[in-house]
Amino acid sequence: MSAVNITNVTVLDNPAAFLNPFQFEISYECLVPLKDDLEWKLIYVGSAEDETYDQLLESVLVGPVNVGNYRFVFQASCLIQPCPQIGLHISADPPDPLKIREEDIIGVTVLLLTCSYLGQEFVRVGYYVNNDYDDEQLREEPPPRVLIDRVQRNILADKPRVTKFPINFHPDANANQSAEPGPPPDPPAEEDDHEPAPDEF
To answer: Residue 32, SS3?
Structure first.
């Protein structure tokens, strides 16, 4: 069983201009104390064919984490000390359009929210993102060059794809008890592609 469970993710400021910061309010529960930081990452998939165009928009460290329920909103370049039931309104930078092939800016792509502990990713929440012009005439007759300041993004917030990975949250304790028989291993990664309720993350 995971020591940390995401209980809800709310996409804020959506739809929004392509160049606006991303904002996600994340709620999670911690079932056992964790002495090290949780690392939350927000990744923009720049191309479906080539992962070298992926952009790490932000990486945020949160911890150490005691048992309890927590809530925060993603921010760029900040170390956060989580507080139970307290919301911090923060944001993550948008992708750099100069690092995306022009033919990939307009259309559907993916945004990934991940969380890791001790370098081990244990949950990934993926969202489809539709980028298109904010004007009907521009949509019908696209200009030869992308007008990035007229592009609007729409995150399909009600259809997240949640994938969970089994990891070892307490490797030191397990090393000390290596001579003793341990519990059976966790099942393989689980993937949900339905529309989860807040407590189904």
So the answer is: coil
- Cβ(83)–Cβ(65) below 8 Å: no
Q: Give yes or no for a contact between 64 and 32, defined as CB atoms under 8 angstroms apart.
A: no
Does the pLDDT at position 200 exceed 90? no
Contact of 149 with 179, CB cutoff 8 Å: no
Q: What is the rounded CA–CA span in Å between residue 43 and residue 6? A: 18
110 CA to centre of own chain? 11
Q: What is the reported pTM?
A: 0.81
Question: pLDDT value at position 73?
Answer: 80
d(CA 190, CA 152): 32
β partners of residue 34 = 65
Coil, helix or strand for 18?
coil
